[in-house]
Write a structure and sequence with these properties.
With about 325 residues, the chain is of the alpha/beta class. The protein contains 13 helices and 11 strands. The chain has a 6-stranded parallel beta sheet with strand order 3-2-1-4-5-6, sandwiched between helices. A 5-stranded antiparallel beta sheet has the order 9-8-10-7-11. Helix 7 runs parallel beside helix 8 and helix 9 packs across helix 10. The two termini are about 55 Å apart.
């Protein structure tokens, strides 16, 4: 279109032949500086100036698009990997999931629902290339290798979940992760009780046997189906109307220290309910009595809507534990 406009313009303003007008258009667009074929009229000079200015912009944009088209595939992957590596280096208090099989994929789905930052390690190339899970980062590699765990930020992570299909691999990951981060919370899949014992000896925080959990769940669905459905409603997902949240009283007001919970009036003020209490010694108290006293850094398990949880948190000067990591 630019070539046609230039050719028509020179033919109109300077009465050039088609070939001369086309020649003037090309040398003006390319700015080669051959000079004019004939002296230009004032209107011809004005048209040439405007045509050259527009040509510079259009031709420059055309060249940049062609260059980007050819270089995007060659360099896009490397730049993308560089940006992802840089982002992972800045991550902290995230959760590392080793293995993206049947258990691992479900773990990632649930963690994202809880609004956790997730880094997935898996050695299947197709999975890494076709990753489409928003809210998670993927690393291609063997989770049993220390360098891969370091790339995933294990030293700054808050938790690691290993859901590899082989117990020996899970054991190796636990040993490596515990050595790299002694304070890391580690949860591992175990296929049987023997593997569970070995994992606990290796330093795992919790070991989960999917068959045992699934069997218990199915049996309960037969014996007490309504109880199971009721408990499934009590989760701390952000999209649930009713949430069961763990709140740590890390900024308890002085007037509430060692004060019985019955005197706080939390139910009337916030509408939330305290279902559980964790003592300093790690003991869990279900449905604590009204005489239970609050103290700094005590933990409460509170049931309520999102607004009720927020009001309760402000009342006791606490922090919702699942959100504590992102306060910074």
């Amino acid at each position: 279109m630019l070539t046609l406009v230039g050719t028509a313009g020179f033919m109109f303003f300077e009465h050039f032949s088609f070939l001369d007008a086309l020649f003037m258009t090309v040398i003006s667009m390319s700015t080669v500086g051959y000079g004019t074929l004939h002296p230009l009229s004032p209107w011809g000079k004005i048209f040439t100036i405007l045509f050259i200015v527009v040509s510079l912009g259009v031709v420059g944009y055309f060249i940049s698009q062609i260059t980007q088209h050819f270089l995007k595939r060659q360099f896009g992957f490397f730049f993308g990997q560089y940006n992802k590596n840089l982002k992972r280096k800045k991550m902290k208090n995230h959760v590392i999931v080793c293995g993206y099989g049947r258990n691992g994929s479900q773990v990632v789905k649930e963690l994202i629902a809880y609004k956790e930052k997730v880094v997935v390690i898996d050695n299947h190339h197709e999975l890494i290339v076709n990753q489409n899970f928003a809210g998670s980062e993927f690393i291609e590699g063997d989770a049993t290798v220390d360098e891969v765990l370091i790339r995933a930020g294990v030293q700054k992570a808050s938790a690691l979940i290993t859901a590899l299909p082989v117990d020996a691999d899970n054991l190796y990951v636990v040993l490596s992760a515990r050595a790299l981060n002694p304070d890391l919370k580690i949860i591992s899949r175990a296929s049987n009780e023997s593997a569970e014992k070995k994992l606990r000896m290796a330093g795992v925080t919790n070991a989960v046997t999917p068959e045992r959990v699934g069997g218990t769940h199915m049996a309960t669905l037969v014996a007490q189906p309504d109880v199971v459905e009721f408990l499934e409603c009590l989760n701390s997902r952000g999209d649930s109307p009713v949430q069961l949240m763990e709140i740590i009283c890390d900024n308890l007001p002085q007037d509430l220290v060692n004060k019985p919970i019955k005197e706080i009036g939390y139910r009337k003020i916030t509408g939330a309910n305290i279902l559980g209490f964790k003592t300093a010694g790690g003991e869990y108290i279900v449905n604590p009595s009204p005489d239970t006293q609050l103290y700094p850094n005590s933990k409460l398990f509170v049931l309520g809507t999102s607004d009720q949880i927020t009001d309760f948190t402000r009342l006791v000067g606490g922090t919702v534990l699942s959100q504590e990591k992102y306060a910074e």
